[in-house]
Design a protein that fits this description.
This protein is α+β, with helices and mostly antiparallel strands. The chain has 10 helices and 9 strands.
């Protein structure tokens, strides 16, 4: 097996043969006035509306054309994580979080260093072949992220169904749905995105499907010829010279942002289920209420007059949240509480006793706290 610099030299020889044979042209370090643009290259397929926005200092636009054929299996340097079976290297996988959502602002210097080291392979610049591999792996990651969001939403919706029917089925005790349950289930499926915003937007499946198609098209174009790398390379280095580490570290987030927009990943991240919704947690989240955080608070509701509130619920809220802020949070989730909030009997459960508290208290809630509410 050839690896390291020998593999790099072998790839360069292959590319040179492609150049001589005309099957895959390499573009020069700096594009000359006579060099073909993407719009000038003859294509067999229909044009696509995918557009990459160039770096602000670049003078040329970058329009990606479509391609329907799927790419061959991408060459991998190392085994991917067992818990995340996506055929990409770890530095690329680490660009998204544990639920496969991308946060461009969270791409740290350390993450970019690892990506550079993996694909530059000790060289002072990123050549065309290495850039191609990087782009293809990132697009494979986006495609996997799209599929993952569909799965997460499906799982979250199933938990909403169980919640609506107050069911706790197990493999040994499965309750058959009644005719009323089926009607209720049909109504829930039509309104689940409104009743439970935590499951994500109702356009997620459509957007995810479009994302996968766009990724396939861009991959096919990248693999068709090195000239199609120019839009991406000009983002990393607007001067159209070789991509050195300083260019990469400065402009890689901009490249990721462009690719995220072009492939629908940016939209998916905005309409995806919130964290842990696929496991049945945080289904009580609302966009205008407290955000999801690391502090878990269990609530027991013993209400007689207030309706449409469960007997108990667990909330994951931000740190340094006061009891008053939490009560206002509850009022947004269960509107019936608002009218009675000043009269609520609130008890804080401790190992030894119950401690009363006022609804407008500045008491900070901590992880593992148990609250009891009575009207």
């Amino acid at each position: 097996m050839i690896g390291g610099k020998e593999s790099r030299l072998a790839r360069k020889k292959i590319n040179e043969q492609r150049k001589l044979g005309g099957s895959k042209k390499r573009f020069s370090r700096c594009k000359s006035p006579g060099s073909p643009s993407l719009a000038e290259i003859p294509l067999d397929d229909d044009p696509s509306d995918l557009v990459l926005q160039p770096h602000p200092s670049s003078n040329s636009g970058s329009t990606l054309t479509s391609g329907i054929s799927l790419p061959d299996k991408v060459k991998k340097k190392k085994v991917h994580r067992e818990q995340s079976p996506v055929p990409v290297c770890d530095p690329v996988r680490d660009l998204v979080n544990d639920v496969f959502l991308l946060e461009v602002d969270d791409i740290s210097v350390e993450k970019m260093e690892k990506v550079w080291d993996h694909f530059a392979e000790g060289e002072t610049s990123l050549d065309d072949d290495s850039l191609e591999r990087l782009l293809i792996e990132f697009l494979i990651l986006v495609r996997a992220a799209a599929q993952r969001q569909i799965t997460r939403q499906q799982q979250a919706v199933k938990h909403c169904e169980k919640r609506a029917f107050n069911r706790n089925d197990t493999a040994l005790n499965v309750t058959e749905p009644t005719s009323k349950d089926l009607v209720k289930l049909t109504e829930l499926k039509q309104t689940v995105h409104e009743k439970y915003p935590a499951v994500g937007g109702n356009e997620l499946s459509k957007e995810a499907g479009e994302a996968a198609v766009k990724c396939n098209k861009i991959i096919a174009r990248i693999r068709r010829g090195a000239s199609f790398l120019h839009p991406f390379k000009s983002i990393l280095n607007p001067a159209c010279e070789e991509v050195r580490k300083k260019h990469f570290m400065r402009n890689f987030p901009h490249l990721v942002e462009n690719l995220s927009t072009a492939t629908n990943l940016e939209t998916l991240c905005q309409i995806a289920p919130i964290r842990s919704a696929s496991s049945g947690a945080n289904l009580n989240w609302r966009p205008d209420a407290l955000s999801v955080g690391p502090v878990g608070v269990k609530c027991e509701f013993e209400f007689e007059d207030i309706e449409n509130v469960p007997e108990e619920e667990k909330f994951n809220i931000p740190e340094n949240t006061t009891l008053k802020e939490f009560i206002n949070h509850l009022c947004k989730i269960y509107e019936g509480i608002e009218e009675y909030k000043e009269e609520l009997d609130i008890q804080i459960v401790t190992p030894d006793s119950l401690e009363p508290a006022e609804w407008d208290s500045d008491l900070l809630l901590h992880d593992g706290m148990n609250l009891v509410f009575m009207d």
